[in-house]
Each structure stands twice: as structure tokens, then as C-alpha cells.
Amino acid sequence: MSISVLLVDDEQLVRAGLRAILESQPDIRVIGEAADGASVVPLVRQLRPDVVAMDVRMPLLDGIEATRAVLRAVPDPPRILVVTTFENDEYVYEALRAGADGFLLKRARPAEIVHAVRLAAEGESLLFPAAVRSFAAARGGNERAREAMDRAALTEREAEVLRLMARGLSNAEIAGHLVIGAETVKTHVSAVLAKLGARDRTQAVIAAYESGFVVPG
């Protein structure tokens, strides 16, 4: 089954490079391009991509606001990867908080770009490295996030799964670590997301860090 991708970047050269890399893969096809975040919502409605690879900094509407716009306006929205030059950019973290599923460095190797798109489409792994976690950790102890975590009342196993998610483990890796079945892990992950009111595992992990439930280190 092929993965359809919409590219959004104000630099044509970047779009052309990403298109060439992604379309070299038999399971990925680029179905559209846009030069600014303001075009994203109508294109997503029209093309229904599986993944949007979107620059975090654009002149008219940046990737943060474009992400919010897609999630507000589109039922069953696509996975969103924010594309950035620097991984320690607070814009990236704010885009993740807004609902993006992960991020992609413009200088990444072709194999890494392809892998990131596939991971985003699968939704079972976390594109949330240490440099971005530091922004979440700096917000640890957020009272609202702490109250939401308390209300979630996670079971002991769900809490264990969330901690492993925060370490960046995939469902298969969590299953191996806990010596349980992959389907059981999926069930626990779904329960964690539902209890936290999180759209996906990225949002759940942000909540875990900002509440102080997970501490880096």
C-alpha cells in the first residue's frame, strides 16, 4: 500500500529535493506541493494525503498555525511532519504541541527522510529526539498538565507503557521490553491516548513531560 505525501515549503529547491528522494521509493508517492501554509487546508481536503511534510517557518502562514488549521478543519487529518533546518528550534516544539506528529531535518540523509515518512504514516513510533525533549522538560511541572495526568488515572501497566513511549520506543520495542504481545501494546497505547485526550503518541509524550510524569535522564 503506497503512502501519499503533500510537500509544503516556500523553497522550491527543498520541495524538488524531497520529491526526488521520496518518489525513488516504490511505496511512496508525492501527490501535491504548496509554497505556503495558507494553501494546506484546501489541498489536504482535495488530495487527502497520508502525510504532510511541512516547513516550520514560512512567510504567510507558518507550520505551527498550518498544523492547527488542518487539525481544526479536516476530519480524519493526515499525519504531519514539520520540516526544519535546526532540531533545537523552539518552533519545532510548538508545532509538536500544536499537533504535528514528528519532525524532519532538511539536512537528513535520504534514507532518514524516507524512514521518517514511513514512521509518520504508521503512527507507531515517535519522531521526538532528545533535543526536542529538552523543551518539554523545561516545562515540567505545568500545573494544568499535572492535573490532566492525575485525572487520567493510568493503570500501572499504562503508566509503564507511557514511560517507554517517552523514550521513543515503537510498539514492537515496547512489546519486547515488557514481554507482551504487540496487540496488547496497541491496546494499552490506545487507552493511554484516550485517557489523556491525546491525538497521538507525540501529544501523549508531551503531556508526560510537561506534567512531570516523565523526567529526562
From TrEMBL:
Keywords: DNA-binding, Phosphoprotein, Transcription, Transcription regulation
SUPFAM superfamilies: C-terminal effector domain of the bipartite response regulators, CheY-like
Post-translational modification 4-aspartylphosphate, affected residues: 55
Organism domain of life: Bacteria
Domain HTH luxR-type: 147-212
Gene3D superfamilies: 3.40.50.2300
CDD domains per record: LuxR_C_like, REC_NarL-like
Domain called Response regulatory: residue spans: 4-121
SMART domains for the chain: HTH_LUXR, REC
Coiled coil: none
Name of the molecule in the record: Response regulator
Gene source species: Streptomyces milbemycinicus
